[in-house]
Write a structure and sequence with these properties.
Elements (H helix, E strand, L loop, with lengths): L4 H34 L4 H13 L1 H12 L4 H25 L2 E2 L2 H22 L3 E2 L1 H25 L3 H8 L5 H31 L4 H13 L1 H12 L3 H26 L2 E2 L5 H19 L3 E2 L1 H21 L3 H9 L1
Antiparallel strand pairs: 1-4, 2-3
Helix pairs in contact: 1-2, 1-8, 1-10, 2-11, 3-4, 3-11, 4-9, 4-10, 4-11, 4-12, 4-13, 5-11, 5-12, 6-11, 8-9, 8-10, 10-11
């Protein structure tokens, strides 16, 4: 079968985007780990805050742009889809690469906070709109979350010996440069990859709704995926799990909160199935984490399987049987 010029260009975008994501994530993980120890903060906290917020920038950009264009409903779909992707796909893949050790404090606090925020958001979404007042509540929530996370992180600190070792290293500015360049790399890589993926999706005849719920949600989650995978390979499980959890909290509180302040978000297009899957995968992490205080490869495979089933569900519910046949006959 002959590949058209547009398809070839889309494939090139996918390749370039993948390379930018990998090398960007490499720098982001290295820089953030070193900076965390320099300031006496565990890598987990950097993952929950700086790395998580940085890698969630694509979701923020898409949501705010949609709101300013009068299409705020896209924001909710993007955030819900991204959160499902962060847990089921990203943590699933990271655990498959290397089992993720999880501190008991993470289970009791950070994961529990994520579940609580998820439930709060579902309650706000059910009436069909996230209002300006709801946006204020969510925005206050992200401010409190940040302040509390950093406060308790500084209070607990890290190993003094290891901290002194990192502080003794020369050329401290290299860590900052790695962090900045890495962040730029993953954000740019995500945008380039997204352009290529959308081009292929359109070529296959996918509907706009299906593209938004799958390609856009996946594309805006690529920085989290790249960062978590590289962190897992380097045995930086704290950053891997912290990045996913922090991104979910950031998506719900900050992105939906700020977007609602710009324009009330229409959530009528979000189904109970979407909300249910988001809640299930968030809660499912808790019992999984309690098994030997880590996420095993088997548990990672279960999460990944749930994500595949969810994508299949979206595909089947957004296409008629006739539509599916047409797509595959093209």
């Amino acid at each position: 079968m002959e590949i058209s010029d547009s398809t070839s260009i889309s494939l090139v975008y996918l390749l370039i985007g993948s390379l930018l994501l990998y090398f960007g994530a490499e720098g982001l993980v290295r820089g953030s780990s070193s900076i965390a120890f320099r300031f006496g903060i565990r890598p987990l906290v950097i993952g929950l805050t700086l790395v998580a917020f940085g890698t969630s920038s694509p979701e923020l950009a898409v949501s705010m742009s949609a709101a300013l264009d009068g299409n705020s409903g896209i924001s909710a779909g993007n955030v819900i889809g991204s959160n499902i992707c962060n847990i089921a796909l990203i943590i699933g893949v990271a655990a498959l690469i290397r089992p993720i050790e999880i501190d008991l404090k993470v289970i009791r606090t950070d994961i529990s906070i994520m579940v609580g925020v998820t439930i709060l958001t579902i309650v706000l979404i059910i009436d069909g709109e996230i209002s300006f007042f709801d946006g204020i509540i969510l925005t206050i929530g992200i401010i409190v979350y940040n302040v509390a996370t950093i406060y308790f992180a500084k209070k607990n600190g890290v190993s003094e010996d290891y901290q002194n070792f990192v502080k003794s290293r020369k050329k401290k500015y290299l860590d900052i440069a790695l962090l900045i360049l890495g962040l730029v790399g993953v954000l740019l890589g995500a945008n380039v990859f997204l352009v290529g993926a959308e081009g292929i999706a359109v070529k296959l005849g996918a509907s706009e709704a299906l593209i938004g719920l799958t390609i856009v949600a996946f594309g805006t989650s690529l920085p989290e995926l790249a960062t978590s995978v590289v962190a897992s390979i380097k045995d930086e499980g704290d950053i891997s799990i912290g990045n996913a959890i922090g991104s979910n909290v950031f998506n719900l509180l900050c992105i939906l909160g700020l977007t609602a302040l710009v324009m009330p978000i229409d959530t009528s297009g979000i189904s109970y199935a979407d909300l249910g899957i988001m809640l299930v995968v968030s809660v499912l992490i808790i019992p999984m984490a309690f098994t030997k205080k880590r996420l095993s490869r088997l548990e990672g495979a279960i999460l990944l399987f749930i994500y595949i089933l969810y994508i299949a569900y979206l595909f089947l519910t957004h296409y008629s049987v006739h539509g599916i046949i047409e797509v595959f006959l093209k």
